Amino acid sequence: MSWTQCGCQIVPAIVLAGAAMFGLSSSAAAHPHVWATVRSEIVFGPDHKITGIRHAWTFDEFYSAMAVQGLDADGDGKYSNEELGPLAKVNVESLEEFGYFTFVRKAGSEKFLPLKPPEDYSIDYDGTAVTLHFTLPLQMPADPNADAVTVDVYDPSFFVAFGLAEKEPVKVSGTPSPGCTAKVETPDQESAEAAKALTESFFSQLGPGSDYGSQFAQTVKISCASQ
Amino acid sequence: MTRPLFFLMAFVAAILISVSAMAQTSPPSAFGAPSQRQAGPPAFTAPDAATPRAAPLQAKGPLGSLLSWVAQTQQKLQRQLADAVKRLKTGNPLAAGLFLAGLSFAYGIVHAAGPGHGKAIISSYVLANEETVRRGILISFLAAGLQGLTAVALVSILVVALNATGFQVTAWVNQLESASYALIALVGLYLLVTEIVRLWRRRSQGEGAHAHHHDHDHDHDHDDHDHGECEACNHMVDARDIAGPLSWRKIAAVVFSVGIRPCSGAVLVLIFALAQGLFWAGVAATFAMAFGTAITVAALATMALGSRELALRLGGGNARWADAVWTICAIGGALVVFTLGLLLFAASLGPSRPF
User: Fold this and answer.
1) Are A129 and A61 in contact (CB under 8 A)?
2) In chain B, which among 248-267 make CB contacts under 8 A with chain A?
3) pTM
4) Dihedral of the CA atoms A103, A105, A108, A109 (nearest 10)?
5) Are B68 and B58 in contact (CB under 8 A)?
6) CA distance B157 to B174
7) What pLDDT was estimated at residue B121?
8) Is B39's Cβ below 8 Å from some Cβ in A?
9) A58, A129 contact by CB (below 8 A)
10) Closest by CA position to B184, among listed B350, B347, B345
11) With an 8 Å Cβ cutoff, is B27 touching chain A?
């Protein structure tokens, strides 16, 4: 039968068409549903090492309305700490599965520094937006006097679009050595790195389970003047 | 066939242009070039001084400026949607209402770019079946309408009637999502199995039943795919018949499997509107969104059918060519529906998201 001979040539075409369609749809799927504005405090211990990161993530109005829905238990129109406490707890607990969306590295290293479960967490709601506060301790304090440390906050799946705040996105607190600063790296400084990542990121846009969100990551660099 | 396609394309293009104008972002200047952010005109509502705002998202990589533009446009649309709902309380209700409807419609068009909205699934389904453009558009509209209806029903029951928490709503949305993807995979599997069974039957008939080849007993009963004689009789109508009969049950299955998943964007808008004391505005916005989604999906389904038509014409009147095109579409389309459903189902079972 001639149509079966035809069928043999058809198979690769089917596979290609299917792959192309899936690639297109999965990259298009990567559109954010939640928007979060990030402000981070780099916490230094008495030995001038970074002990952790204190985050304040402010969510968009839609997500915020969803998050506080049904939590005004006493119906007074206000959301107290008692009412929002359980929400904060569930949020920070489920963050673990996602690596807290926080990626800490020594500059130039590929390895992420391990983090401990969040501490001192709370949620406040100003009537418009929900802000989640929590501290992420590093398992081993990192010394920016030796090597600069970088922090990226992003959701690889881009379900949540994290963006650094326009004003005061990062600051240092505690007892840093004099001259230690936390700054947002501008894309220019990263252009070399971005060029290196060209091919990888191009394909990551197409594949499922991709690292799509990392393309939107803004890096915070903690360095000290002594370097 | 080409006229509805043209109108849909022109319509979507016009909407996208007006959306980008509304969102006040400059489109990327060049492919891969770093985007030059312009100091845009001030937003029509002053940002809340107390609430910190994120700097516009900037993507790296070769498609960076394009991706940045898409993400920024989505964010601006969403913020404007929130402002539009709030202005219903303070501004001219008619003007604000029309603005909200237009914005929601645009949001629906842009937001439809996700597989959950059935874009790829409906396109593949109509491709795999003998569906006309008109029926492709009908399926798109029914599925989007049902998605909107599911969202409204879910929020009405859970939030308005039961004052459920955001967590409970999210849990329901996730369950319906998993159920929808599982059903989509089943629809794909059904299409795939029926197609393979038919091809296999045709093949065994072709090899074993030469006696029937020339009796030309065409009763055109579509449930009985007796097309072993196709090559001999060599006419297009028979080639078309192989793709499958009109079946309202099949259409209902695909509409239902896609439609029981409430659009998460619509659920957010509904709850936000409810918090503002304007639930009706959320309902109106949901259906305006569903309409926008339907148009995008219908345009894509129409394009898929257009490509199939083009492929058929390339072969001239050659029945063998037409046969091959139909087979590719039927198996390929069914395969995509099945695989997408399965992958999305597996992904939906992942750990629950914190936000």
Assistant:
1) yes
2) 264-265, 267
3) 0.74
4) -100
5) yes
6) 16
7) 85
8) no
9) yes
10) B345
11) no
Q: From residue B188, give the alpha-carbon distance in Å to each of B5, B203, B330.
A: 26, 22, 11
Query: How would residue A187 be classed by pLDDT, with cut points 50, 70 and 90?
Result: low
ipTM: 0.74
pLDDT of residue B187: 92
**Rounded to an integer, what is the distance from CA B335 to the centroid of its chain?**
17
CA distance linking residue B299 with residue A75, whole number of Å: 47
Structural contact between residues A112 and A180, judged by C-beta atoms closer than 8 angstroms: no
Under an 8 A CB cutoff, do B61 and A17 touch? no
A206 in reach of chain B (CB within 8 A): no
- Which pLDDT belongs to residue B245? 56
pLDDT value of residue A80: 87
Calpha distance A97→A88 (Å, rounded): 16
Residue A110: the pLDDT is: 80
Contact residues for A225 (Cβ-Cβ < 8 A; gap 6+): A178, A179, A180, A181
How far is Cα B176 from Cα A54, in angstroms, rounded to an integer? 36
Sign for the pseudo-dihedral over CA of B280, B170, A155, A88: positive
Computed over every residue of chain A, the mean pLDDT equals 79
The β-bridge partners of A40 are: A55, A170
Helix (H) or strand (E) holding A227, with range, is: none
User: Three-state DSSP class for A109?
Assistant: coil
3-state secondary structure of A150: strand
Question: CA A8 from chain center: how many Å?
Answer: 46
DSSP string covering B276-344: TT-HHHHHHHHHHHHHHHHHHHHHHHHHHHHHHHHHHHHTTT-HHHHHHHHHHHHHHHHHHHHHHHHHH
Q: How far apart are the first and last CA of chain A?
A: 76
pLDDT beneath 70: ranges in chain B? 1-50, 61-62, 113-117, 206-246
Q: How far apart are CA B167 and CA B62, in angstroms?
A: 38
What amino acid is encoded at B277 in this protein? G
Could you tell me if B323 and B239 are in contact, meaning their C-beta atoms sit under 8 angstroms apart?
yes
The answer for B 267-286 residues in CB contact with A (under 8 A) is: 267-269, 271-272, 274-275
The C-alpha atoms of residue B258 and residue B249 are separated, in whole angstroms, by 14
Domain layout of chain A by residue ranges: 4-223
Contact A100, A115 (CB under 8 A): yes
Token pair of B184 as six digits: 């989509």
pLDDT at B185: 93
Taking the CA atoms of A98, A104, A106 and A108 in sequence, report the sign of the dihedral they define: positive
| Burial bucket for residue B328 (CB in 10 Å: 0-12, 13-18, 19+) | buried
